[in-house]
Amino acid sequence: MKKIICFLWAFVSILCLSGCTDSKDVPEDTAQADHPYKSVRQAGSVDELDEIVIQDAEDTVAKILSDRNELESSITTYDEYVANIDSIHAFYSDSLLESEQLGLRMREYAVQYAEMIVNSDADLSDKYDELDAIYDVIYDDAGDEMYSIYDDVVDEMYDIYYAGILDDAYDQVSYDEWSDYRSDAYDTWSDTKSDIYDEWSDMKSEIYDFWSDVKGEVYDGDMEKANEFISDFKEDIARLKEKAGD
Fold this sequence. Notes:
By secondary structure, this protein is mostly helical. It is 83% helix and 0% strand. Keywords: Signal.
């Protein structure tokens, strides 16, 4: 009798495992696997690094925008929305992950600027002025590009789906079904926007502090202390990458 029970229990367990394998739920690490961290390019000069930073930010925004446009063109009705809800959620997850990784790369670019400038043979006054590239190119220009993910690309998902396709379907399906999908659409959109904003804000704040600290030490002529700030920031980045699963 015990053997029969054990056999039945094993059989049920196999079925459960099989069911889990067929689940539509996406494992948490799937997004990371599909979007491995892109290492930053190494520049030979500050001018070259300027171009690399801006191009990276623009390319990232363009990719997310392209993904959103593809969704918009392929999901044009309520039925298509319901059938492809996983694709909608995947877009939000990917947008957040792309933003997170872009923020990490911006921090690494800041380190590259600082190391290149602080350890150069330039005069202190020139080093002091050149460090403003961290503020002008990363904090300001690339920061504006990254902000557009929050304020433009993902923001328009509200008009396309929540206030668009789903709003138009009010009289097409039962209220309970319509309300559930619409609530989900709003919550996912709102949560993703909030998370992307946090990524952008954290990146800006940390890079500003890093720039200010290194610049202050260069002003004082203390290259050793400036390099300590650089080393500390590199350790902070490493911890952030580890936390993000990279």
